[in-house]
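Sanity check record (used in CI):
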Amino acid sequence: MFSKILIANRGEIALRILRACRELGIKTVAVHSTADEDAMHVRLADEAVCIGPPASRDSYLNVAAILSAATITGAEAIHPGYGFLSENADFAETVEAHGLTFIGPTAEHIRMMGDKITAKTTMQMLGVPLVPGSDGELTSLEQAREVADNVGYPVLIKAAAGGGGRGMKVAQTAGDLEDAWKMARAEARAAFGNDAVYLEKYMDRPRHIELQILGDNYGNVVHFGERDCSLQRRHQKLLEEAGSPALTAEQRDAIGQTATQALSKMGYRNAGTLEFLYQDGQFCFIEMNTRLQVEHPVTEMVCDVDLVREQIRLAAGEQLGYTQKDISFSGHAIECRINAEDPDSFTPCPGTVAVYHPPGGLGVRVDSALYTGYRVPPFYDSMIAKLIVHAPTREQAIARMQRALDEFVVEGIKTVIPLHRRILEDPEFQKGEYTIHWLEQFTAKPH
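Expected output for Biotin carboxylase:
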């Protein structure tokens, strides 16, 4: 086992990793920008190293500074968390080249799954079902027209290197295709420096279902069930559930077996998440995230597992030590992402937290690095906390979340807590009757 780990991230995920390390008896190194010198993970870590000014490119994306910090502190491994460098294959490769351990999958698998065309091709060969569409990159508008005519409109043009909804455009009819093609490529070029695109059938009422997996260095792969991440605004998740109200245990087992067999054949190691669109009883693979997910706590709550602890164990070369039969699912969990945003306009609202009082009680968990007097900086993602609840049934989990939201006090800045209260009160949500398009329609309604 490692004796010291550098945490190459900030905010709640840095604190989450620090806690797992502390329980394993591992010392921690926090790296931080000048804007985060008073951050909670910096205060609690065994050592802290400033790696640059506020801008991410000069600090949390500064590979040389992070590696220097690891070297001078004697860290043996680097945990990237999520975001920033977590899915950067070159970074993973460089970490290993410097004699350190990257806590995550291999650079080869990060690279393979980071290109969505390669990921789809690989999964198709391994027997994982796909959304109907092009076999690979579209090389011309004429080719796009041919594929679109074959799968039927509406269609979605997607960036091969995309993420977060960037480089995605819908063509409802043949007349819309040229504009969608041009805009998707231009957006992809600007965002990723790569204008390669492909085409998929646009599904009109799917759910976004993802499957959490873990693999060790010895070919053993297991899954920890599904998360329903359908409540999204502009392709950004806001609320997640485990398990999905749309799936049965039999459906979970079937897609879980398909996924674990595929990743075992790949030799995949550490944590990963397969993402699917689910409609009319059919799963269609869309992408894989080769890292820990923001929403991992809902899986931890229903499976009683510490996924970060498992990541560290596996990176240290340990075997899983259990099989799929050993994993059980208990109750229901819901996560609400608490963003420092106006709940109506979604405008970011950085500033000083005048009062911070998190909720508590049975089955309530808050993952946050906030404290009273903390100044939320304007330079990073607006998510400031995750509120997670667990209960024996979905109905009880909803009631517990409503109670917890009412207890949650964050003053001095605006947050989306009022929006979460509205969502939890909605009859369609309470029945579990929503798709990936539901939240956009819900937030457009007057209230």
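The chain has 15 helices and 20 strands. If this sentence no longer matches the regenerated tokens, the check is flagged for review.
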